[in-house]
Amino acid sequence: MNSQMFKEVRSVPEIVMRQLEAAHEPYTQLAARLRANPPTQVLTIARGSSACAAHYLRCLLMARCGRPAWSLPLSLMTQHEAPVDTRGWLAVAISQSGQSPDLIDSLQRCRDGGSRTLALVNDIDSPLAGTSEWALDLEAGVELSVAATKSFIASMVAGALLAAYWHHDEELRHGLGSLPQALHLADRLSWNAAVDVLAPASRLMVVGRGFSLPAAQEAALKLKETCALQAEAVSGAEILHGPMSLIDEGYPLLIFATRGPSLPGLVTLAQQMRERGARVLLAAPEEVAQRDLTLPTTALPELDPLAAVQAFYGFAVALAEARGLDPDRPKHLSKVTRTH
């Protein structure tokens, strides 16, 4: 695999190490100011892969920090001009390019309305960074592949750093310190069995729950982008509702069962779907019986989704090539997306 996307995937452990080394001063300063004037709620602003990273940030802030966190429906702000009262909130925008007008406009409206504003960006000189009260560099470097990989994981790391520094979470900070090693181990895992199953597929569901759902959402997006697969991300709690009617004999499901309270239920779901005749690919830690794909683990279950995405990215490149596609040149897509 010689694609630019694969090269950037393999650069992720070093990027995260560099990101962690540069984090202490800016995150310490930001955390001190947030503690001095605590926001009442957190609002995330993002699209695409960045929206998946924002979902992960909200999970961390609520589960480990007890902070209410919500996603902003961008169109209500930019097109309907909804008079949302965001006084006392923290608005966090996440973007690889920092160029999209709807993100810039929404963050500016939040700031004008009395929010504290933070941009997590891979271009610290971008318009989005300039709009924000604070801007933190993802430290991923220039990303050439159309499909964001290194900047996505760097966005997840940035969210974890924000939670750890803001709330003096030394366990989370320590866990992040060992993350580059876990990402290296993720690069060594082989998901070849999944390539054989999904190379001829035309559709699938990607399932997660809790902290693994953002990983499933990102995986589904990448399968659309790079593999031209109609992939839908679904919560393991929701699949028993409407999505169940789609699952028939041979229907493929990729289930991300990372460690945590949701793991037993997702393993049970995998067995139930197998009994219905679905072609299940259960991605789970090594100790889980009847797994199909091995998920790497990290120092904390809450960080496992980052290593899971890293393992998935190498598989996505292999699957695209097995389907006769160039992962660096997805149809109809460009590196910078500008929505209004």
What structural keywords apply?
340 residues; alpha/beta; Rossmann fold; five-stranded parallel β-sheet; 13 helices
In short:
The protein has 340 residues and is α/β, with parallel strands linked by helices. The protein is 46% helix and 15% strand. It has helices spanning 4-10, 12-36, 49-63, 74-78, 101-112, 127-131, 150-166, 170-177, 179-187, 192-198, 213-227, 263-275, 304-322; strands spanning 42-45, 69-71, 90-95, 116-121, 134-137, 203-208, 230-235, 252-256, 279-285, 293-295.
Explain the overall architecture.
The chain has 13 helices and ten strands. It has 340 residues and is α/β, with parallel strands linked by helices. It folds into two domains: 4-177, 3-Layer(aba) Sandwich (Rossmann fold); 185-322, Glucose-6-phosphate isomerase like protein, domain 1 (Rossmann fold, 3-Layer(aba) Sandwich). The chain has a five-stranded parallel sheet, sandwiched between helices. Helix 2 (12-36) runs antiparallel to helix 9. The longest helix has 25 residues, at 12-36. The radius of gyration is 19 Å and the shape is globular. It starts with a helix and ends in an 18-residue tail after the last helix.
**Could you say which structural class the secondary elements and strand pairing correspond to?**
alpha/beta
Largest sheet: 5 strands, parallel
* Helix and strand sequence: HHEHEHEHEHEHHHHEHEEHEEH
Q: Count the helices. How many?
A: 13
- Supply the CATH class of the largest domain: Alpha Beta
Mean pLDDT: 92
Helix content: 40-55%
- End-to-end CA span: 36 Å
Strand order of the largest sheet: 2-1-3-4-5
CATH homologous superfamily heading of the largest domain: Glucose-6-phosphate isomerase like protein, domain 1
Which architecture of the largest domain would the CATH scheme give at its second level?
3-Layer(aba) Sandwich
Number of domains: 2
